[in-house]
């Protein structure tokens, strides 16, 4: 299968590209990524010269480029998005453009190339915020509350509309919070790990009692892959780690694992409209896809801390924004690693 992975140079995208290349020796991957602040071509330095991998720098809102690439693919795994809630609160423009318009642009390209399979990678945040009990599932009503989650909800609706109206063969997955290698250090886990490695304090929002359901990124990639290959067209699958932690508990664990005390916590003003609790009931994916979140949280957290300890050059360049210059100097590549046509 020839798979077009949008947003492949980001956190989940990079992990998914390596997942597919390792597990499906007959598949080829083309990454389409705009290399925003969150995309890093350095992630693929091990793939240089690999004939099964191609990188194309470009925007998912570029209809002509999307059309050309979709024509050459059997499947699109749409991962590209603006993803940070705090940034969406500052300015939602790029979120609406990439997440909503970008998704429709790809759906239009798939529609014009009838048989191209489309899998949309989405978030549990489209379902809103939970009280102290219960969990989201595929039948939960949409109730997005941040500009980020509202833009992802818009994209989900457009994907369903493309299936119902135009028969674009699509599936959607809504996943809980990921963590693992290549995670951009603006999100809580990589931010806290790298701050501590730099001897800096870690900013805990509000009362620290907001809850997230953590899933190791490789388990999410396995779910995406199963949904793509075995999911029923038109269906949605929810993935979650069955691993809820309050931010305060998560913070204590990171501090303990890294040998620091609670004096490193800096309580800061809460995020406006901060969703209190997310949790996923992944029974449908477990039942229909034979999927499960295999990585226990402590195991995944230790592996993640180890990865950041072992890759200081990566996260230091990412934190300073110097990774783009690095890549150009090192590899002299800007744009396409192999011709599109
Ligand atoms: P990320 O921010 O690390 O990466 C996003 C990637 O998309 C980057 O490589 C960026 O360059 C690229 N991109 C952004 N705008 C683009 C555009 N206009 N055209 C082409 N490429 C563009 O994000 P992530 O954490 O890897 O999340 C990936 C996807 O998974 C998103 O759709 C997100 O909503 C979803 N998701 C993430 C999580 C999580 O915990 N990280 C959980 C559930 C769902
Ligand atoms: P984040 O990693 O931004 O993911 P999301 O908002 O998509 O769930 O945040 C996870 C939780 O951590 C969320 O409740 C906000 C909190 N948080 C902090 O307490 N401090 C921080 O510096 C960040 C980035 C997040």
From TrEMBL:
Annotated catalysed reactions: dTDP-alpha-D-glucose = dTDP-4-dehydro-6-deoxy-alpha-D-glucose + H2O
EC number(s) given by UniProt: 4.2.1.46
Keyword NAD on entry: yes
Pfam families reported for this sequence: GDP_Man_Dehyd (PF16363)
Ranges where the NAD(P)-binding domain occurs: 4-303
Molecular function GO labels: dTDP-glucose 4,6-dehydratase activity
Statement: the UniProt record of this protein carries the keyword NAD: yes
EC top class, as a word: lyase
SUPFAM superfamilies attached to this UniProt entry: NAD(P)-binding Rossmann-fold domains
Cofactor: NAD(+)
Coiled coil: none
Swiss-Prot/TrEMBL keywords: Lyase, NAD
GO biological process: nucleotide-sugar metabolic process
Family statement: Belongs to the NAD(P)-dependent epimerase/dehydratase family. dTDP-glucose dehydratase subfamily.
Listed name of the protein: dTDP-glucose 4,6-dehydratase
Organism: Candidatus Uhrbacteria bacterium RIFCSPHIGHO2_12_FULL_60_25
Lineage: Bacteria, Candidatus Uhriibacteriota
């Amino acid at each position: 299968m020839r798979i077009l992975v949008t947003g492949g140079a980001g956190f989940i995208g990079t992990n998914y590209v390596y997942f597919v290349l390792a597990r499906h020796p007959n598949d080829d991957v083309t990454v389409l990524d705009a290399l925003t602040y969150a995309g890093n071509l350095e992630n693929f330095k091990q793939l240089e010269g690999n004939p099964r991998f191609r990188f194309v720098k470009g925007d998912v809102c570029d209809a002509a480029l999307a059309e050309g690439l979709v024509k050459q693919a059997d499947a699109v795994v749409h991962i590209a998005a603006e993803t940070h809630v705090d940034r969406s609160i500052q300015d939602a423009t790029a979120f609406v453009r990439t997440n909503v318009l970008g998704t429709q642009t790809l759906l239009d390209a798939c529609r014009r190339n009838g048989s191209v399979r489309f899998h949309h990678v989405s978030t549990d945040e489209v379902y809103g915020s939970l009280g102290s009990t219960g969990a989201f599932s595929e039948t939960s009503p949409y109730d997005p509350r941040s500009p980020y989650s509202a833009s992802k909800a818009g994209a989900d609706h457009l994907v369903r509309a493309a299936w119902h109206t135009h028969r674009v063969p699509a599936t959607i997955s809504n996943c809980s919070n990921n963590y693992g290698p290549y995670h951009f250090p603006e999100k809580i886990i990589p931010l806290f790990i790298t701050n501590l490695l730099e001897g800096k304090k870690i900013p805990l929002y509000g009362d620290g009692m907001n809850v997230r359901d953590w899933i190791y990124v490789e388990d999410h990639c396995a779910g995406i892959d199963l949904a793509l290959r075995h999911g029923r067209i038109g269906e949605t699958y929810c993935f979650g780690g069955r691993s809820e932690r309050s931010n305060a508990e998560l913070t204590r664990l990171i501090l303990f694992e890294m040998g620091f005390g609670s004096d490193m916590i800096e309580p800061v003003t809460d995020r406006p409209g901060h969703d209190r609790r997310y949790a996923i009931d992944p029974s449908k994916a477990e039942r229909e896809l034979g999927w499960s979140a295999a990585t226990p949280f402590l195991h995944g957290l230790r592996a993640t801390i180890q990865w950041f300890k072992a890759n200081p050059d990566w996260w230091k360049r990412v934190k300073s924004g110097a990774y783009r210059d690095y890549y150009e100097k090192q590899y002299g590549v800007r744009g396409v690693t192999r011709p599109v046509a």
